[in-house]
Specification:
The chain contains seven helices and no strands.
Length: about 180
């Protein structure tokens, strides 16, 4: 049996997600404006990143109140579902909350992660994973473009490279080589 996730693991995840979003904005700010498609709305996506960070900051002080039973449920999610699948559900949940389209009030870490557990309970479980719960939890976030803005159809045609800084930097190196 894998070690159960702790409130510290959950706090670490939320803190790393917030930092990844902040770094994503910093990376986007460093790009030349001419690399952006006309469809890219800087103010909209800047606000989107900011609002995600504000929501995460609201959750952080409540992490210690997440009950042991929920941490056990999160451990089960982390060890029985592919991280990419959980990441997708997590991103949808964040988007619903930040956009205001979610009716229920998920103003604490317990309620937020409870909603994630509930959403995952409606999914078909995979087979137990060999990765530990902590390692799987950290795979729930992308460090580059953590909100997957570059993949959003409103940014362009869904094949926008200018926001995926890693790909942009790689392309720049190839052009100069």
């Amino acid at each position: 049996m894998t070690e159960r996730l702790t409130s510290g693991d959950v706090q670490n995840f939320l803190e790393q997600l917030s930092v990844a979003i902040e770094l994503d904005q910093t990376n986007v700010d460093s790009l030349p404006r001419e690399t952006f498609s006309p469809a890219y709305d800087d103010g909209l996506w800047r606000t989107w990143r900011h609002d995600h960070r504000i929501y995460i900051e609201k959750l952080l002080p409540t992490v210690d109140a997440v009950p042991a039973t929920m941490l056990e449920q999160l451990t089960e999610v982390a060890t029985t579902f592919e991280p990419a699948h959980v990441r997708g559900i997590l991103q949808e949940l964040f988007a619903e909350i930040v956009s205001g389209s979610r009716a229920d009030d998920l103003d604490t870490a317990e309620r937020f992660f409870g909603a994630l557990v509930w959403e995952m309970s409606r999914q078909r479980k995979g087979s137990p994973r060999h990765a530990g719960a902590q390692a799987s939890l950290l795979q729930w976030l992308h460090t580059t473009d953590p909100l997957r803005i570059a993949q959003d159809p409103e940014v362009g045609d869904g094949k926008v490279w200018h926001l995926d800084v890693a790909n942009l930097r790689r392309a720049e190196r190839q052009e100069t080589a």
